[in-house]
Amino acid sequence: MSMNTQGRPTGTGNVTSSPANGAALLPNEPLLFEIGDTEHSGVDLPDVSIKRDRLGGFSRTLPLDLAGLTEPEAMRHYVRLSRLNYSIDSGMYPLGSCTMKHNPRLNEKMARLPGFADIHPLQPVSTVQGALALMDQLAHWLMTLTNTAAVALSPKAGAHGELLGMMAIKAAQTARGEGHRKVVLVPESAHGTNPATAAFLGYSVKAIPARADGTVDVTAVREALSPDVAAIMLTNPNTCGLFEPQVIEIAEAVHDAGAFFYCDGANFNAIMGVVRPGDLGIDAMHINLHKTFSTPHGGGGPGAGPVVLSAALAPFAPVPFVQRTESGLELVEHSEGEALGRITAFQGQMGMYVRALTYMLSHGSDGLAQAAKDAVLNANYVKARLQTVFSVPFPDQPCMHEALFDDSFLNQTGVSTLDFAKALIDKGFHPMTMYFPLVVHGAMLVEPTESESKQTLDQFCDVMLELASDAIAGNMQNFLSAPVNAPRRRMDETRAARSPILKWEREEVVSEAAQ
What whole-number distance in Å separates Cα of residue 495 and Cα of residue 375? Predict the structure, then answer.
């Protein structure tokens, strides 16, 4: 037996492989309350006599009921918990539409510099000139990459950015006396947050169907346009992993009708440095810094979704924003004229700004373009390897940064997309995105990103093909019971979502009566 470059056994022999993340070797981890008890402490502390408390009558009346653990017990508990997590540092994330790319450690080092990490949003502006300069430079490059006139850095996430962009559109139309425009066009292949954002702002949503090739037809857009239409919200590249070939014609039709073009920029990482959305005719677009510029993604934040605006919408940009003056950089905190005002507290996520600008500067314009091209190359490689077995809904054109498959290759196998994804966990890979986009039945959306090597992609494709062959061969039970190697087995996800157990309660110890 020999070892390959990944340290995995090769050759012949009865070798039982375990998942790549080693999850099968880890036992279930009990809660701290189950490890320790409330009768003992992990450390020895002297008794303290408190003569007068400062709690104003709000002193605790019941025992604290915290488990006492030693330092090694507490440390081992949290280390074991961390090993149960699947992370981008432990394996590939093939999640389509989420872009779980590598977070370079240089970014983290820069974000931890005291001048960025230890500042406070209420400090005097004179003491944070370096931070303002970074924000100003980040804004400059975001506008340069998109060929737009203004940018709002403060939105905390992509959906928050969508809200801002549509608020700017609404303000612009109100300012020119067109508040009657209450309809927003949203293609069926859009992200689900698009119609939700429009509805939240009081718009009615009109769906635009996708063509057979997964893209939006400009003719369908023209037919849907009317004096009541305020905007179109179009994702490009779209959620089928395809570039919209008629995007310029769509923008022209929308503008001719007096409406605005909101572009969902969640997939900008596929075209950054290659295509400038402003050249395509967009009026507003959010940019997910985590997806495009490698800032951390997941765990509920911290998110950052800056919004770039065209010249028509620039006057409606919110505060705060950085402004250069003769005495240095200032932070404009109060809106004037028709600007939206403030949409969030303070200036947004400073740590994400640092990481994003670090990524930009370390790559340069040519490096960003190469990253986008590599993301597209990797996705097309995955598509080319898998389409010999997997069914491809749009086979006649190359994909962009993500490869889309449907579940028709599983027909008559008794295996669903969900079953297939669960089995992938047993092979050590995080599942791809399932059942999205909705325009494809049983969708499996794979986005390898530019971070992954050919060797990693081959390992993933080998496992996918192995599972597909297993399903087609009729080994249905291998899928219905998966995962079996994970710390937690197959669960009733519907019941878990509808009846979650949110509070742990100590089991009562009932003593048995003597015989």
Answer: 37
Mean pLDDT, the chain, integer:
90
Domains identified in the chain, total number: 2
> Is the domain of 447 the same as that of 477?
yes
Q: What are the start-end ranges of the H helices in 232-345? A: 247-256, 277-280, 289-292
Domain final position from 337, 361, 385:
361
Does the pLDDT at position 513 exceed 70? no
d(CA 213, CA 245): 11
- The pLDDT score that the predictor gives to residue 509 is 66
Is position 420 within any domain? yes
The pLDDT score that the predictor gives to residue 2 is 35
**The tokens 């022209």 sit on which residue?**
252
Whether residue 235 has pLDDT greater than 80: yes
Q: What CATH number is attached to the domain comprising 470?
A: 3.90.1150.10
Quote the CA–CA distance of 415 and 11 in Å, as a whole number: 31
Contact 228, 208 (CB under 8 A): no
Is residue 150 domain-shared with residue 266, that is, in the same domain?
A: yes
* SS3 category, 223: helix
Q: Compute the distance between CA of residue 181 and CA of residue 159 in angstroms, rounded to an integer.
A: 22
Contact between 455 and 379 (Cβ < 8 Å): no
Residues in the chain: 515
Q: Which residues pair with 329 in a beta bridge?
A: 324
Q: For residue 118, how many other CB atoms are within 10 A of its CB?
A: 8
Q: Residue 306 pLDDT > 50, yes or no?
A: yes
Final residue in a domain of this structure, among 322, 340, 361? 361
> Domain range spanning residue 411?
373-498
Tens of pLDDT, residues 2-48: 333 333 333 333 333 444 444 445 667 888 888 888 888 888 878 88
How confident is the model over 117-144, as pLDDT tens digits? 999 989 999 999 999 999 999 999 999 9
Residue 413 · residue 476 · CB < 8 Å: yes
Secondary structure (3-state) at 185: strand
Is the residue at 417 inside a domain?
yes
Strand 403-405 to strand 444-446: parallel, antiparallel, or no bridges (unpaired)? Answer: antiparallel
Q: How far apart are the first and last CA of the chain?
A: 61
| Spatial separation of the C-alpha atoms in residues 386 and 405, rounded to whole Å | 9
